[in-house]
Amino acid sequence: MNLVLSFLVAVHSSLDLFLSSCASSPPHLYLLLPECDCSGRSDECVFDMDQYRGTGSGGRCLNCRDNTDGPHCERCKEDHYRSSPEDVCLPCNCNINGSVTQQCDQTGSCVCKEGVTGEKCDTCTPGFHSLGLGGCRRSEGQ
């Protein structure tokens, strides 16, 4: 469901807007922006001119819930995942010693270093032992 937020935005005269008929008024043009799509994960939104220039959409959401991020709360925060856009983003919890990165895929599985296995990269594979800072060490004679 789209969250519809109405808010006023002051667009400063530095935008090269020429308001000759409004010479006596302040150098601002007030616009009513009718909608800010926060993917149902925020109730706060501000106008972002840089985003507007780059995308044509100036509404940027604030304080995204459910571990989401992005201008429209449309993606998971770093080191979080979800299976579908409707789901809450969950922490990846990749093992810092056994995983290549702390980011996982959309199922929560982490990318493991050589000799390490498990969804969170927390177990040594056969022929390896002692999970530590560099991953698992190769067993003697392997």
From TrEMBL:
Name of one Pfam family that matches: EGF_laminin
Main localization of the protein described in the UniProt heading: secreted
Signal peptide positions on this chain: 1-23
Record's keyword annotation contains Repeat: yes
Protein keywords: Disulfide bond, Glycoprotein, Laminin EGF-like domain, Repeat, Secreted, Signal
Keyword field contains Secreted: yes
Ranges where the Laminin EGF-like domain occurs: 92-138
Subcellular location: Secreted
GO BP term, pick one: animal organ morphogenesis
Any one Gene Ontology cellular component term annotated for this protein: basement membrane
Top-level taxonomic group: Eukaryota
Disulphide connectivity of cysteines: 92-104, 112-121
Identification of the protein by name: Laminin EGF-like domain-containing protein
Organism: Periophthalmus magnuspinnatus
